[in-house]
Design goal:
single chain, alpha/beta, four-stranded mixed sheet
């Protein structure tokens, strides 16, 4: 069990990452390749990733270079997932390159004591070998993570909408409510399922929450308690189509494709809305709004998740693409 201790200052400084952290997604997706746990939720990604990795002849680099550094275990080096990753892939990789030599060696020693480090690991303290690592991380990301970027971002957007509503309802500590079955908030401590028994005291630093598409099971925190505190936690998953149905991809106006009421419901979902809010926006009953969202969800345009006592609906990448395709184009002089 991981127990994260908050003060009032910590609650005020706790925030949610604005976008997927590419380095954490690299790491947790590598974990998905190492186990069948959660395979059902990532089945299409798993098949596509194996095919892409094979056709690009990246498999040997994956097996001999990346997987030994990021085992699915209680510990892997913290310098591989720097906090700068929330600013994007380039910022994160620059931080990996800039890691001090002594820290690289220290964390590889911890890995060796935990699960065993590769014999060549100490060479990562040298800039040239770390440049090779950064190139491999970028290639892996471009090959198997970037093609799913829209889908991952849509899930993060849905989570941010849910967290924002929780804050509006419960104040600053609302961001810690209903984070998932592995996390439970009992003021002033956030309890998390964890492979080790550990206490993390924030001491006024706050906490960066990072929702992750590929994380599965228990949340993940830095092994080094002196680093800026972060908590990576898994998103819930439900599959949806990867392409627009033929009738929705025809380019016809949205109202003609969906009908006036259902098109209005889809537009109202754009910023995240509950069933009751959609009913008011579309001028229909709650039961009718629920039927419309069920149809939109079946078409892969909307995703729904329970949030406290209501259901929050947000767009999938397909829904967002359909709205963009049917948005008026401004006249150009």
């Amino acid at each position: 069990m991981l127990r994260i201790h908050f003060t009032d200052t910590d609650l005020n400084r706790t925030r949610l990452a604005p976008a997927p952290d590419p380095l954490w997604e690299i790491c947790t997706s590598l974990h998905r390749l190492q186990t069948r746990h959660g395979r059902w939720a990532h089945a299409d990604w798993y098949r596509a990733a194996r095919t892409r990795l094979h056709t690009t002849d990246f498999g040997r680099t994956l097996r001999t270079f990346l997987l030994p550094l990021m085992p699915r275990a209680a510990y892997f080096p913290d310098f591989l997932t720097p906090v700068e990753g929330v600013e994007g892939l380039d910022a994160g990789l620059d931080a990996v390159l800039g890691t001090p030599r002594h820290r690289v060696l220290h964390e590889l020693n911890l890995l060796d004591r935990s699960t065993g480090a590769p014999a060549w690991g100490p060479r990562l303290a040298e800039p040239d070998t770390r440049k090779d690592l950064v190139r491999a991380l970028r290639t892996y990301h471009d090959t198997v993570i970037a093609p799913y970027g829209d889908r991952i971002q849509a899930r993060i957007d849905a989570e941010r909408a849910a967290r924002a509503r929780a804050v509006l309802s419960h104040g600053a500590e609302g961001i810690l409510h209903n984070l998932g079955p592995a996390l439970h908030w009992r003021r002033p401590v956030l309890h998390a399922l964890y492979p080790l028994d550990r206490d993390l005291r924030l001491e006024g630093r706050g906490l960066l929450l990072i929702p992750s598409y590929f994380c599965w099971g228990n949340p993940v925190a830095f092994g080094d308690a002196t680093l800026d505190p972060v908590l990576l936690y898994p998103l819930t998953h439900e599959p949806y189509p990867c392409a627009l149905p033929a009738d929705l991809a025809s380019g016809a106006p949205l109202t003609a494709l969906l009908g006036r009421t259902r098109a209005g419901v889809l537009r109202a979902v754009a910023l995240g809305a509950t069933t009751g809010e959609l009913a008011r926006a579309a001028g229909v009953s709650a039961s009718s709004a629920s039927q419309h969202t069920a149809a939109l969800r079946a078409a892969g345009l909307v995703t729904s998740r329970r949030h406290a006592t209501c259901v929050l609906h947000t767009l999938t990448p397909l829904g967002a693409a359909l709205l963009r395709a049917n948005s008026p184009v401004p006249d150009r002089a």
